[in-house]
Amino acid sequence: MIKPTIAELTKEEMNRYELVIAIAKSARRVTDEYVEQRERADRMIANRETDKPLTALIGKEYRDEKAVKTAINRFHDGRYEVIPAEECEAKEEE
Fold first, then answer.
1. Which residues of the chain have pLDDT under 50?
2. Can you give the pTM of this predicted structure?
3. CB 68 within 8 A of CB 20
4. Side-chain-facing half-sphere of 65: CA atoms under 13 Å
5. Range list of H helices, the chain
6. Within a domain: 69
7. Residue 67 lies in a domain
């Protein structure tokens, strides 16, 4: 069984569609973070600023897990949350 379950992630507050969209956007953010770390590590190695291998310069979370799995874990841990569209629109009007 896949952990965490959809019920644990949605907490009965959102539907599956909203969850999938949120996870996809979060996975894109995780991928962007990985790319930034990879570029920084490549520059450091090219400029001979470090003698560490590439894998040591990239965070374990980005290196060892798929982006979607990392995004799901971040939702489950509470590091990411879904803000309903109504709340976003209300904040923009203020």
1. 1
2. 0.78
3. no
4. 15
5. 6-10, 16-46, 54-57, 60-64, 67-77, 85-93
6. yes
7. yes
